[in-house]
Amino acid sequence: MTLVIGATGILGREIVRRLRAEGKPVRALVRPTTEPAKRQSLEQLGAEIAIGDLKDPASIAAASGGVTNVISTASSTISRAAGDTIDSVDRDGQLTAIREAKAAGTKHFVLVSFPESEITFPLQDAKRAAEHALKTSGMTYTIVQPPHFWEIWCSPILGFDAQHHKARIFGDGRGRMNWVSLGDVAAVTIRALGNDAARNRTLTFGGPEALTQLDIVRIFEEAMGTTFELEHVPIEALQAQYAGAVDPLEKSFAALMLICAQGGWVFDHEPIRRTLDHDFASIRDMARQAAST
Question: In terms of DSSP H, where are the helices of the chain?
Fold first, then answer.
């Protein structure tokens, strides 16, 4: 049995879907306040539902009972309920999950995080605290560190609107990054379970190409046969937003946008591809799909 924490998020649900497609038993942690439709979609996949909240240690202890593996994708950054903060979810909540998994006799704990950045921000501090706790827990662990997901950063929520041929560019658009698909992150996370090659390792990886934001725009323009309207957010504006942010979540998003602008998260995916026998998708696949809809 694998407990998936963060199962109602886009990455967590994809992990549940893939595990169930392989016929593996899954227990999905669902908060009491979760929308019924999200819970039902997990039930339709064949997941066992555990009601709990990372802010409620007793519920996490109950959900952890009898599971062999735990995968935690939980974060307060996109979907938040009352009382959710970076401290209460991304730090303290993950520490609770690690502690209760250890107490329940979990064999393997996989934590989804992100790579190290020279920019300091609350979300990174929380992730590093959880990573340290997991490494020193005594459990077999795998820490998965992908960079920005293109399904999120190349979407209307962040100003990239392929259907209306518009793109928001952070900085000058020339910083390179190995943008990655959340489907590949789900696949790597699952393939790490029980895999000696992923045992007690941090897997830092990205997609198959180091691309700038302008590269991505050109790929979409070629696929769709049109020119995109660009909105540039000057790096000075991002730096001012980062420097002036008081709210931890706002400061963290400002930092992630700065990372997007400056680039630098460039990784060779080939070792992970060989080790876990997984072929990574290209952002060109997403562009072709957008062109066909």
Answer: 10-21, 36-44, 57-64, 92-104, 122-135, 150-153, 182-192, 213-224, 235-244, 248-262, 270-276, 283-292
